[in-house]
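So, could you explain the following?
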Amino acid sequence: MYQQQPASGHGSRDGGAHDRELEEAVRRAQQGDEDGFTLAYRLVNPLLIGYLRGLVGDEAEDVCATAWLEIARDLGRFRGDGAGFRAWTVSIARHRALDLLRRQKVRPRKSSTELDDLPHPASPDLTDDQAFQALATERVLAQLAELPRSQAEAVLLTTIVGLDNPSAARILGKRPGAVRMAVSRGLATLRQRLSLRDREITDGEPGSPSDLHPLARQPPVVPTPGGLDD
C-alpha cells in the first residue's frame, strides 16, 4: 500500500479548496465511482501535462497517458489527502518521463506548447511575482529546457504542479533547502533571460515579459476510466 506523507498547509497554490475537492474525488474513485475518477482526472491531468511538457516536450501526452494507466491500476493502494495525491501522481509521471528520456538518451526537449495548454494551479488573485511563475508560453518552456535539469524540475514542480518544497524534495530525492535554492536560481535565470529578450523584441518595460500571464483553468477532454485501459 502506498502511504503519502502528509503535505504541509502550503502544498497547493490554489488553496485548500481544490485539494479538499480532489481528496473527496479520490475517495469516491477508490470506491468505484466513475464520476469521482473523472473529477480527479480533470483536477490533476492539466498539471501533469504542464509538468511533462517541461521534461519531454511534445511526448507529454503519450507519457501522461501511460502514467494514468499506472495511476488507475494502483489507485486502491493510495492513502493520503489531495495534495498528497498530486505528489503521488506527478511522481509516477516523472518516472515514466525519465524512462522515455533514458531510452532516447536526450535532454528534456523544447515544446510547442500553446498558451492554454498549461492551466496554472494558482489562485485568480495573483501578485506580480506569482504571475511571473505562470510558465505560460512556449518561450518560457524553451528557456526552461536550457536550465540545468535540477533547476527546471524544481521550478516545474513548485509552479506548474503547485507542490511545496518538502513534497517536491521527496520526489526529487533532495533536501527542501536544495529545492528552494534550485527554484530561486532557476526563476532568477528565467527572469533575466526573458527580460533581455523582451528588450530585444519590444519597447516594453524591462523585466516585465509580455508573454507571462496567469492561466485560467481549462478542463481537458476526459476519457472514461475504462478508456484508459484501451
Q: What stands out?
A: The longest strand covers residues 2-3. The radius of gyration is 17 Å.
